[in-house]
């Protein structure tokens, strides 16, 4: 495993992060989920990402159990706040001071830890003044419950405003967690340049485009049994945008590139993401332990200019690049 500094800070994270968004507490049984976490540890992964909204807090519980007994100082545990949790009442959502202070306590209890290394605003809250949000974050940092703060799917302007307030409050906003892959490049035009200027890194999610970039889905063919595209608990809905023949055909054009390099298609996709200097870590998920080790090996893949050119020729024209889509990822109003 390789480790990279997170933003303009002294803390390092593993270049591959293990995340449990669509798996723990929902699609994968607890024993299998715990086995995947242990496989991540065996692969040298030290950074683990979750959120209180995942499986309505159950994912945090599973991760806490899986990491129980590990040396806490050797881990970077990251979680997030925003989405509706619990009974999903009128204050069980958003980035208000009330919700943040109550949510961090619940997350710490479920994760079985006294602090989290990185606490992230899961989306931008249009209904709460950003000053209130950042003050609440600063307070829990000073209470020792959080070491660093981050955001997820914020626009360049929102990141800049949040960073300025964090500086005024004497805390470190060091990361953004956006979607990023060969097929989804909406952060390249605005978010990445702004983040690089401010000393903020990306911890990217869905670098394999929900598994599509592994090449397991072929145009005109039914999805493999047991794959995410056949999952009725939410996986099929999330992957639907990529299940189009032109995209699947483009992905298959990546296969000979990966073969020439002697790597899997998943490793190719992860290596492409990690080549971006502003990306500190790429989040992977897994339903089987063996998937973890294979994907973690992507940190040793070096893509030269020729390979990058071939990749661009294969799928570059299919990639979504509209920077405006970042703003659309945050709801126009709270769900509750």
Q: Which outline best applies?
A: globular
Number of E strands? 10
Beta-strand content bin: 5-15%
Q: What strand order characterises the main sheet?
A: 3-4-5-6-7-8-9-10
| Rg, Cα atoms, Å | 19 Å
**The level-1 CATH class:** Alpha Beta
- What count of structural domains? 1
Distance between the termini: 41 Å
List the helices and strands and how they pair.
Layout: E1 3-5, E2 12-14, E3 16-19, H1 30-42, E4 47-49, H2 58-67, E5 76-81, H3 97-111, E6 116-121, H4 130-142, E7 146-151, H5 156-169, E8 173-176, H6 191-198, E9 201-204, H7 235-239, H8 245-252, H9 255-261, H10 265-274, E10 279-284, H11 289-296, H12 305-315, H13 325-328
Organism: Lysobacter korlensis
Domain NADP-dependent oxidoreductase: 17-314
Protein name: Aldo/keto reductase family protein
What does this structure look like?
- The protein is α/β, with parallel strands linked by helices and about 325 residues long.
- The protein has a single domain (about 5-330), classed as NADP-dependent oxidoreductase domain (TIM Barrel, Alpha-Beta Barrel).
- About 40% of the residues lie in helices and about 15% in strands.
- The protein has helices at about 30-40, 60-65, 95-110, 130-140, 155-170, 190-200, 235-240, 245-250, 255-260, 265-275, 290-295, 305-315, 325-330; strands at about 5, 10-15, 15-20, 45-50, 75-80, 115-120, 145-150, 175, 200-205, 280-285.
- It has an eight-stranded parallel β-barrel, surrounded by six helices.
- Strand 7, helix 5 and strand 8 (about 175) form a beta-alpha-beta unit.
- Helix 1 packs parallel to helix 11 (about 290-295), helix 4 (about 130-140) crosses helix 5 and helix 5 packs parallel to helix 6 (about 190-200).
- The longest helix is centred in the N-terminal third of the chain and has 15 residues, at about 95-110.
- The N and C termini lie far apart (about 40 Å).
- The mean pLDDT is about 95.
